[in-house]
Amino acid sequence: MIGLSKGKLTLTFLKSKSDYSSSEVSIKKDDFEHAVKRLQKKNYIALTKTPDRWIVRLLKKGIKRRSKAQLDDLKLEQRANWDKKWRLFIFDIPEKYRYERDFVRKKLKTLGLYNIQRSVFAYPFDCRKELNLVAELLNIEPYTTYAEVSYFDIDKELRRYFKDKI
Known about the structure:
- There is one protein chain.
- The protein is 35% helix and 29% strand.
- The chain is α+β, with helices and mostly antiparallel strands.
- The protein has two domains: 2-59, no CATH class; 74-161, 2-Layer Sandwich (Alpha-Beta Plaits).
- The termini are far apart.
């Protein structure tokens, strides 16, 4: 939801029906109206006027754009102390989702995971939340597995690859 008064723009983001967060941004009314019209024209949002505010609904195209932005901004955490466990991300994505499979492979490499096999990647720190987000945004969750292992027969190879991080 958006509220605009005296040059202050209040944005309320609904995470669920009962959970929301709000933030205030200073913006000129003309700039705001221009941005809203541009987002509407691109079919990212739909506006609904109520007696006291405007309700902005993110449309399918807007959700897709937001997802892409989330993927573009994604980074993995590095900790000072390594717990000597390897995190494995394993997937078996069907051929009909080839684009998603190729995308996730490239993204995991970009994030710095070690490619053990074509669909098996390793990382030394907890990254379950970030990798679950990738799987969720690409709608490939049923085809992915995340594991933490304390023993791995290629431990030396992984330690060599991640020597600057662990």
